[in-house]
Amino acid sequence: THTELGNKGEQLAVSHLEKNGYTILERNYRFQKAEIDIIAQQGNIVAIVEVKTRTSANFGNPEDFVSPKKVKLLVKAADEYITSNDLDVEVRFDIIAILHEKNSITIKHLEDAFYHF
Description:
alpha+beta
C-alpha cells in the first residue's frame, strides 16, 4: 500500500543518513498542518529532510512531487523546531528521493533541494 511504501522509504532514508554520519533528531515531527519526515544533524548543520518514494519514474522523478505549499509548511515547521529547541545551527532543506522498482532501489540525496524564502 501507499503508506507501507512511504514507511519503507523513510526507513531506507534513515539508514542512508546514519551511514553517512548524520544523527537522527526526529522522525515525523508535526507542527500545525506540517510534518517533517526526518530532522537530522551532521556537525553544525540540521537537515530538514522530505522523503519521496515512488515505484516508477513514469510520471516524473520522486523529487518533482514536493509542492510549493509543502515547502512553505516545511519551512514553518522547521522554524518552530529550531526555535523551540533553541538550536544555533545552519538549516538546510534536503529531499531524499527513492525509486523502488521491481528489482532495484535507487536512493538520491539532494542537499539544499530548495531554499526557504
